[in-house]
Amino acid sequence: MYINRFSIALSMALAASACFAQEDRFAAVEITDQHINGPIHMLMGAGGNIGVSIGDDGTLIIDDQYAPLAERIQAALRRLGGNRPELILNTHLHGDHTGGNAFFGDDGVIVAHANVRSRLLAQGDLPNAALPAVTFADTLTVHFNGDDIQVIHLPHGHTDGDSVVLFTNSNVLHMGDLFFNGSFPFVDMASGGTVTGYMDDQRQILARIPSDIAIIPGHGPMATKQDLALALSMIETTHSMVNRAMDAGSSVDEVIAQGLGEDYKSWGAGFINEERWIRTLAADRQAAQ
Ligand SMILES: [Zn+2]
Fold this sequence. Notes:
By secondary structure, this protein is of the alpha/beta class.
């Protein structure tokens, strides 16, 4: 009896400490805002950058970071004169971009590519409010706060359900995780991403955007078209470096030991370090063969 009570108390204590650990991770996170252009702002906290449009039609957000931050995100929107968002666009399925869906999806309509809904549904543990209620296959246009907002799906890049969001009048582009500004990108092959697709997606975007557009990357600071071109050129160059070395008979471990050189050091300071990036390039090569 005593043992039972003790083990119940112990497991409750463990559950509570797991809970605190989760809380602690976000305890110090503050949501900061940056005005971009016209009705468009960016919010930063932890996880993917949030795009915001606030105006006469109401409030629209792109991505919503992690669940424990949802109320702080809502407070930031109110600070900017916004309200509960009518529309929530998800650029892709990852939890650092969709964690607030249950909170915001209670009042607002979540919109995403069809693969985002099916992959979130397959997780099996999300409430209905967290799932996109409106899905699309290729493109969708939302007319809101004076913008024709084009939500454009691009295939097999970071995942198989990525969209970028183009505010044609405000001249702002939110790229989700098809752009990590200044760092090696995460390519989620288990969710249908590929490196070659990622490069193709970035080339397509570069070909259609004006040179003075403001770009909200999925991660990292605000960017220009030149920053995006630089990120693509980094991927192209390291992709051919790794492929050339492996064509010549090097193993992945040998390529890692050799390294990419000083020029690429700063790109590995983020979530994906140099080793992980080389392993991604090698896995992509393997998958393509
Ligand atoms: Zn992601």
